[in-house]
Specification:
By secondary structure, the protein is mainly beta. It folds into 2 domains: about 210 residues, Sandwich (Jelly Rolls), CATH 2.60.120; about 80 residues, no CATH class. It is about 5% helix and about 45% strand. Strands 1-2-5-13-7-8-11-10-9 form a 9-stranded mixed beta sheet, with helices on one face. β7 and β8 form a beta hairpin. The longest helix is centred in the middle third of the chain and has 9 residues. The protein is globular and about 40 Å long. The relative contact order is 0.20. This is Endo-1,4-beta-xylanase. Its main location: secreted. Pfam families: Glyco_hydro_11. Pathway: Glycan degradation; xylan degradation.
């Protein structure tokens, strides 16, 4: 794998201190995209908008490039993405890419690929798993000896998961793969983690939107009165409508919830409730939302 020249940007000033308690809410509610992977060398016509979580690229017989948007520190987050990916004749991948510091390892969750399945040959098969969304992934590993890495030239393990029914949009629960790989020596000292496009041959193009971490669901709507509201599930967002925030039961348990009325100028946490969702326990109390404020709901 190549050496890594990356661009990182800080989170918006003040945001990191907004959700001070509990720590689990603070960590997840501030889980904004803050990392640009740009090992490119002008090979990919890479254009990105970090704030919007979007990027695009096109290539024609490139050397190896790795580009993407994500996080400076990886985690077992759930990542939502959508892409237009055209690479049928190209050696390329669309998916999640990152590194672990100790033991040093490089990892991929390949959602779609061009002409080459990286688990097809020259690797050690680890079988397959069924992910949280029902998709089947082929698992494999490979040892890279004296190859470029995030610390210079080193020897490290590559961990791969390749989706058997390819797709270009969806939600990836990284915990599924970290758990499976951990049985084969995968560590938990995470370096960066991005939704990536990589290519090393042929031609193609991609346009990608990174939806952020699905471990933090967030929505906003201007409150029309001093009454707080109910959060109703939809395919895209939660829409406040009445006096109590109600969260749909997610597919996996979450430990706690924060509700924050937000003005246009600042963000302030006004209530935190312990919340363990089940099929019947999906609501919790909340403060009133002052008229004209934006109500934001988070679960983590």
């Amino acid at each position: 794998m190549p050496s890594f020249t990356t661009t990182t940007t800080a989170l918006l000033a003040g945001v990191a201190g907004v959700f001070a308690s509990p720590n689990s809410i603070a960590a997840r509610a501030s889980d904004a995209i803050n990392y640009v992977q740009n090992y490119n060398g002008n090979l990919a016509n890479f254009k990105y908008n970090e704030a919007a979580g979007t990027y695009s690229a096109s290539w024609n017989n490139p050397g190896d490039f790795v580009i993407g948007l994500g996080w400076s520190v990886g985690s077992a987050r759930s990542i939502t993405y959508s892409a237009q990916y055209s690479a049928a004749g190209s050696g390329s991948y669309l998916g999640i890419y990152g590194w672990v510091n100790s033991p040093q390892a490089e990892y991929y969750v390949v959602e779609s690929y061009g002409s080459f399945n990286p688990c097809s040959s020259g690797v050690t098969s680890l079988g397959s798993i069924t992910a949280s969304d029902g998709g089947s992934y082929q698992l494999c590993t490979d040892t890279r000896t004296n190859e470029p890495s995030i610390t210079g030239t080193s020897t490290f393990t590559q961990y791969w998961a390749v989706r058997q029914t390819q797709r270009t949009s969806g939600t990836i629960n990284m915990g599924d793969f970290f758990t499976a790989w951990a049985k084969h020596g995968f560590g938990s000292s995470y370096n960066f983690q991005v939704v990536e496009v990589e290519a090393f041959s042929g031609s193609g193009s991609a346009s990608v939107t990174v939806g952020g971490s699905a471990a933090v669901a967030s929505s906003s709507k201007v409150a029309s009165s001093s009454v707080a509201s109910t959060v109703v599930a939809s395919s895209v967002h939660y829409t406040p409508t009445s006096s109590v925030y109600t969260a749909p039961a997610p597919t996996t348990s979450h430990s706690s919830v924060a509700v924050a009325p937000v003005s246009t100028a600042s963000v302030s946490l006004v209530s935190v409730s312990t919340y363990i969702p089940t099929s019947t326990n999906t609501s919790f109390g909340s403060p009133t939302a002052p008229a004209g404020c934006v109500v934001k709901y988070f679960y983590a």
